[in-house]
Amino acid sequence: MMAIYRRIQPKRLKTKLFLSLLILIIAPLIVLYLYLFNQFEAALQDKIVTQSSKGLDQAQQSTEDLMSLVYKTLVMVQNDKVIHDVLTRPEKYTELDRIHLIERVLKNIDNSIFVFNSQIVYYTLLDDYGTVYTSFQPQQMLNYRNIKNERWAQQLNVDHPYLWIANDPNYVSRDVTSSKYLLTLGSIMRDTNNTPFSMARISIDYEKWFHTFVHSDKEHQYYIIDKAGTLVSSFNSELVLDREVFAFFRETKEKSGFYFEQGTDNLINYRSIPQLDWYFVDVIPRKVLFREIRDLKLEFFSIFIAFILLFIAINMFISYKFTKPLTVLEKKMSSIVNQNLKITISEKNYTGEILQVIRSFNQMSTDMNTMVKLLKDEQKRRELVHFQMLLSQINPHFLMNTLNTIKWIAIRKGDKDIPDICVSLGNILETSLHSEVELIYLKDELKLIEDYLLIHELRYNDQLNVDYEYNSGMDYALVPKLSIQPLVENSILHGIAPLKGQGNILIRIFTEDKLLYIEIEDNGVGIQGTNQRQKGRSRKGIGLQNLKDRLQILFKEDGKLEVIPLEHGTLVRMQLPYLLSRPYEGG
C-alpha cells in the first residue's frame, strides 16, 4: 500500500499546489453543489410522489364508488316489479314484449345512475326458463346453458349470492367496445321474500371509464396489474414494463407505496383495490421527474468547468514562475545525494532566500556526516560489549551435563534431596536453552516457579510459604519465559532471607482492560532494608533491569514493571498484553 502511495504521490511543488487547491477548494465545492442538487431532487421527488398519490387515491376512490353504483344498480334491477314479473311469469308476454320491457327498464336505471357515461355498463339477465336478456349487442349469440356453466355462475350460491370478476373477457361486440377485459358483478337476484328468481351479470367497461381520469395527464403512465403479477390494462403508455415490476406485485403485501425500479430508475407508485386484487400503478420516468433539475445541472456544470479550466491555466503560469528556481536547486541537491553528502553546493550565483536555503543545506550536510561517523563508532562499541558478554557467560549445556552427573552420583549414594534439586534446576536451564522461544504458557512459567521453590525448600525448611491467586482459565496466557522467576528470586533473596520469622510470598495474577497483571507481594524487610544491605555490594543486580528491557522490547508501552513499597514488605507489579493462546496436544 505504501509503495503504491509513493508511486502516485505528486513529486513537483506546482503539482502539489494544484492538488491542494483541487482537494481543499474545488472538490468540496463540487460535493456541496451535488449535495444541493440531490436535495432539490429529493424535494421535487416528494412533490411529484404526492401529486401522483393524489391521482391514484382519486382513481381508487372512484373505482370503489363505481363498484358501489354497480351494486346499487343490481339492487334496483332485482327490486323492479316489471323485471320481476317478466322473469318469473314470461308466459304473460310475447317474446318481443319481454325484450322491449326489460330494455326500457334497464335504460331508465342506467340513465338515472350513470348520468355522465351510460355507455360503459352492460346487463345480462337469465331467467329460470332458459332465456337470456341483454342491453347490448354481443360478439356472438349468447347461449343460456353456456352462461350457466361459466365459472362465476357455478360459484354463486346461497352463502355467496354475488361475486366480483376482475378480468372478465370481453363478450360485447367490438363495434361497441374494444377493451380486452370487463369488470363484472355476477349475482343471484332475490325478490322481497328473499327467494331467488333470476341471475344477473352487470359488466363495466372500466378501461373507457379509467381513460376519463388520465387522458389529460400525458407525463404519467398508468397500468392496472393484478395480484398474480399480470398486466390487465395500460393507459397513456407505450412503455413495456420490466419483469421485475410484475414480480414485485406478486410478492408485495403492501396496499400502497412507491419505489424506484432498478433497471430503468422509473418511479413506481401504486394503490390497491382489495376487492378486485388489483393494483393501480403510476409509472413516472426519471427524465420526467428531474427534467428541470437536469437542465439546471447541465448549465451550472458547463460554467463551472469553464471556470476550472481558467483556474488551471492561471495556476500553471504562477507555479512556473515560482518553482523554476527551486527546480534548479532540486537538480543540484540530487547530484549531491548521489555522492553521499560529501560535497557542498557552491554559494556563488545565488541570492536572497535561495542563498539561505543553500547555506542551510551545506551546514546540514556537514552535520550529517559528523553524525554518521558517531553512529558508526557507537555501533562498533555495542558489538564489542555484546561479544564480551557472550564470552563471560557459562555454557548452559555444560551446566546441564554437570547436573546430570551430580544427580546420578547422589542416586547411587542414596540421597533423596539432591536429585530433586538437580531435576528442578535442570528444568530451569532447559527452558533457558530454547533461545528461539520468547513467549511460553503461564502454566509452564508457574511450573518453573515450583521447580525454583523446590530448590529453596531445603534451605528455608518451613519458614517460606508461597500462595497463588489466579484463574485457571488463564493457564494458556502467553508470558515471557523466566519473567516471574526473577521476581520471586528477588523477593526471597532481598526480602525474605534477612527476615527473622515466617516469610510469605503471594503470586497474584489477573486481567483488566485487555492487559495481564502479575503481582509478587512479600512480607520481607522492604525496599529500604534491601538498599541498606546492598550498600556494600560491589556488583549491582541486573535482574529487574533486564526484565524491564525485555518487556519494553516485546510489548513497547504495554510492557511495564514497577516496584511498590509496602508497610511490611514489597509489591512488584508486571504489566503486559493479555494474549490467550489455544490449548493444543503435543510434546
What does this structure look like?
The structure is a single chain. By secondary structure, this protein is α+β, with helices and mostly antiparallel strands. It folds into 4 domains: 58-207, PAS domain (Beta-Lactamase, 2-Layer Sandwich); 215-289, PAS domain (Beta-Lactamase, 2-Layer Sandwich); 339-392; 437-531 and 541-577, Histidine kinase-like ATPase, C-terminal domain (Heat Shock Protein 90). Helices cover 52% and strands 19% of the residues. It contains 17 helices and 17 strands. The strands form 4 sheets. It has a 5-stranded antiparallel β-sheet with strand order 2-1-5-4-3. A hairpin with a 5-residue loop joins strand 4 and strand 5 (196-204). Helix 2 runs antiparallel to helix 10, helix 12 packs antiparallel against helix 13 and helix 13 (417-433) runs antiparallel to helix 14. The radius of gyration is 50 Å and the shape is elongated. The two termini are 40 Å apart.
